[in-house]
Amino acid sequence: MQDVNAGIIGLGNVGSGTLAILAENGAQIAQKLGFRLKVAAVCSRHVGAVAVPEALGPVRRATDWREITNAPDIDIVAELVGGATTARDIVESAIAAGKSVVTANKELMATAGADIWERGIAAGVNLAMEASVAGGIPIHAVLREGISGDRITALYGILNGTSNFILTEIERRGTAFAEVLAEAQRLGYAEADPSADVDGLDARSKLALLSALAFGQRITPQGIFTEGIRRITPIDFQYAHTLHHTIRLVCAARATPDGLLLSVRPALIPKQTILAGVLGAYNAVWVRGQYGADTFYYGRGAGSHPTGVAVVSDLMRVAREIRSGSPQRVSPFAHAHLGVHQPIPITQQTRAWYLRFRVKDRPGIIAALAGILADKRISLDAVIQLPSEDKNDLPFVITLEPAIESTVREAVDRMSALEFLNEPPLALPMETAL
What is this structure's pTM? Predict the structure, then answer.
């Protein structure tokens, strides 16, 4: 059977890993496909400085991506440059030229993927995006095909390896956030500007994509309630452990009779739950179905080889469909068409809460805080204070009985104005549904 030719645009970490896998695993890939998946061309702004594996054979090099998307011999374009500007131009140019597209671009797919897929349908080409979320976990394939017969009721994930590395190192070593972040940057887990990771924006895009697959709705990332991990301290883990919990940046999507509740935020989760055991730079997704109950998926969320495997697997799937299938066999979004998402404010949910305070110690503090909670008809569960020698910066915790988030926020806003506080209270939900 005739070869299928791919053009790779973007030769950074993921692109280089993809080339290495295609070179080293080429014989087995051909054996699985029944034909060769050939790299015909590569593109990078500095393509001359990139070492292309000799095992790939003759490969054209280009610095202008249009030479790839417009090349008549290219069947599949792999967009691996990232971002949502030039990357969108590449993807739309490839589709307009009648070429199928493989992408690892979470940001682009989260914000415009449904529209791009509609263009692909009209052009009779395919779109594959497995590598866009949790590169080492085939979670798209799971939601798209593996458990597509179920009705998903909830999805929980740890979807950002950098944040998970930081949190688990703070927990393990009792080291402050800033110091662990600097280490993550030295190790290559975090960028020089870590905002997308530690402020939850990267995880938000991934949750938007997974929620679209799981629930069949167009999810706008900007409509997802998002909080980062910058305020989490070693003392929070000490108190969490006292409560038999730990802290993770949890991506949550839950179906309710009124619609979807979506959030990305640090939360306390019971230590006996499976998500609590996800350590370091690993990712995990826990899916709850109405019929199939709970399933769990775990693996590396990033890295040249884990993500490269996802890209190569997508290239293989698209190549099969080019040679013997239909480009519309299975929608990349698991649904023929995505419905309109009407977001439910996260403030409507009811949860137990963890409130951590840092105060200048004096009489009447608990009474003042309890009075505000009583005014809002919020019930205290417990007051916990571990030993501390610094009476000018004394940490303690109040846990709350389940309460509506909007009411808790109103109480926290009132508390923030109290003059004995060194900083506003830290309010974290306690996820008991896991």
Answer: 0.93
